[in-house]
Every structure is written in structure tokens, then in C-alpha cells.
């Protein structure tokens, strides 16, 4: 198992994402930079700076990406030229961005407690749908026609073809606040990680969920004989296998078998907390972003 490093800039990494069909990798950072890497050659292809810290990023396709900024801006990038334009604005810091390849919609969440849906086929700066929620959405994940949304320790999912109401008003798989969520069309379900190091695997089909859904404490740490709570910061689901990787606040990344409920592999620990992880389209590459602190970045 070979580990390669990419210099990720001066600021802490907020998100890593692989392109839909290539091994190009985008990295958003608190230093206001979006960087495009060729992961095969380990080289930087593009660096685009903005005026605000970037808390999230996602691909639209191989040549277009989006970011969410600390100034509330949602920015579109042409990855061939580096040109930028504003998709729209939130009233506060943008926390999460997700793009649906099926519906062509960009979904963003913010500290303003709004969930906004943007039609990327048009150049309108106004969202085509808005949900006002009771609390901040900390994580989003697309699964086919559905967008999954985490609010505190609840998971909601919406059908992006019909945004009149939530499909499932409330699913509470974990006792503590959820920090990260990753849905899987292969599973027809999702994995969620919480503040206390617990992970839940849930399935949309109730019968399957009753048979196969479960929760477990995946990153127990002990010090002086007592257990400590280590938050799960990121989860990456393999695109074609029933496996997933969890990354925690102390720099540990562990691969798990979702069916056997067993640990497959514990990666050599990283020098800082695991901030973000992503598989490439084939599942042969896993990108892991590790940060020393919220102010300083390590390597991707």
C-alpha cells in the first residue's frame, strides 16, 4: 500500500474531492485557495484564489467545480481557465456543497440555517428552492435522486425531483451530534459519524435496515484507563464495494467491512486530524487530508 503526498498550501484543508471520471482531485482550503491536482502524476494543475476561506468544494463535471466560502458566497470555477463567477449568496458562512449529476442541481447549506437548491443549467443568482431549518446543516450527501441532510443528530432526505416535503421527516441513528455523512447508491443507504466516535449504517429499505442496519463505536481511545470521545470527521464509502473508511480527530483512518462488521485495515496514523477523505471513481485511490490544527495544513 503506497502513500503519496501532495503539498496542500498554507491553510488547513477543508475538503478533498475526486472528479467524476478521472483521477483529478480538487482541494479547498482555509487559505482561500482551490487547487486542482493530477493525482496520477502528483502535480498541481491549477490554483485559484478567492476572497474568502473555502469550507467546501465539489465537482460539477471534469471542467467545472463549486466552492462555498466564509463570506456566504457560492462560486463556480472553470478548471480549464481558472475563471470564476458567483452562483449566489447565503446570509452567512457556507458549510456544505453537493452536486447531483442526475438532476443538475447544486445544493448548499450555511450557518444561516438555509438549504438552497441551485439550477446550474441557468445563470440565475437566485436559488430555485429554499428550505429554512431549525438548526445548521453540517453535512450533505447525494444518493441518486435524494439529498441527505444532517441536522444535529437527525438525518433528513429529500427527493430532488419533488422538493415540496421531506420524504422521511426524521431519522435519528445516533445519540450525539452527527459530524459527517456519506450516502451510497450501491448500498441504497448511508453511513454517519458522530461526535463521540460512533458510526451508524442505515438503509433506506426498512426490511434491509432491520436486518443489516447497526451502530458501533469505531474509534475507541483510552487514556489512564478511561475511554475518551474521539469525533469522526470524515467517512468515505467505496464506490463499488460494501466497505468504507472512517477518519477521526486524532489522525486515525480505518477501513471497515459493512457486511461482516469487521475492521479490514488501520492505516498508519497521520500527523494531524483527518479533515476529509474521498475515493476516486474506481475505488483504487483514497485521498486523505490531514491537518495539524485548524490554522495549519499538513498534506493530502
UniProtKB/TrEMBL annotation:
Gene3D superfamilies hit by this protein: YVTN repeat-like/Quinoprotein amine dehydrogenase (2.130.10.10)
SMART domains linked to this entry: WD40
SUPFAM superfamilies: WD40 repeat-like
WD repeat intervals: 87-128
Domain of life where this protein originates: Eukaryota
One Pfam family hit: WD40
Keyword terms: Repeat, WD repeat
Descriptive protein name: Uncharacterized protein
Lineage: Eukaryota, Viridiplantae, Streptophyta, Embryophyta, Tracheophyta
Amino acid at each position: 500500500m503506497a502513500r503519496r503526498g501532495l503539498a496542500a498550501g498554507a491553510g488547513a484543508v477543508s475538503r478533498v474531492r475526486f472528479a467524476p471520471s478521472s483521477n483529478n482531485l480538487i482541494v479547498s482550503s482555509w487559505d482561500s485557495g482551490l487547487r486542482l491536482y493530477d493525482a496520477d502524476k502528483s502535480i498541481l494543475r491549477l490554483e485559484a484564489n478567492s476572497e474568502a476561506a473555502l469550507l467546501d468544494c465539489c465537482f460539477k463535471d471534469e471542467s467545472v467545480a463549486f466552492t462555498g466560502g466564509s463570506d456566504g458566497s457560492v462560486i463556480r470555477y472553470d478548471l480549464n481557465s481558472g475563471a470564476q463567477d458567483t452562483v449566489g449568496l447565503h446570509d452567512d458562512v457556507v458549510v456544505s456543497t453537493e452536486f447531483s449529476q442526475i438532476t443538475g442541481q447544486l445544493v448548499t447549506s450555511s450557518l444561516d440555517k438555509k438549504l438552497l437548491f441551485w439550477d446550474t443549467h441557468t445563470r440565475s443568482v437566485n436559488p430555485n428552492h429554499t428550505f429554512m431549518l431549525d438548526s445548521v446543516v453540517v453535512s450533505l450527501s447525494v444518493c441518486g435522486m435524494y439529498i441527505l441532510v444532517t441536522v444535529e443528530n437527525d438525518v433528513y432526505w429529500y427527493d430532488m425531483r419533488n422538493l415540496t416535503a421531506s420524504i422521511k421527516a426524521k431519522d435519528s441513528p445516533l445519540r450525539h451530534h452527527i459530524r459527517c455523512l456519506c450516502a451510497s447508491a450501491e448500498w441504497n443507504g448511508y453511513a454517519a459519524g458522530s461526535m463521540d466516535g460512533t458510526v451508524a449504517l442505515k438503509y433506506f429499505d426498512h426490511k434491509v435496515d432491520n436486518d443489516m442496519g447497526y451502530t458501533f463505536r469505531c474509534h475507541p481511545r483510552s487514556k489512564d484507563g478511561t475511554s475518551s470521545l474521539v469525533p469522526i470527521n470524515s467517512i468515505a464509502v467505496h464506490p463499488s464495494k460494501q466497505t468504507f473508511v472512517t477518519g477521526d480527530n486524532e489522525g486515525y483512518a480505518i477501513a471497515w467491512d459493512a457486511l461482516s462488521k469487521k475492521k479490514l485495515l488501520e492505516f498508519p496514523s497521520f500527523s494531524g486530524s483527518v479533515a476529509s477523505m474521498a475515493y476516486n471513481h474506481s475505488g483504487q485511490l483514497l485521498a486523505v487530508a490531514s491537518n495539524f490544527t485548524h490554522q495549519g495544513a499538513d498534506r493530502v
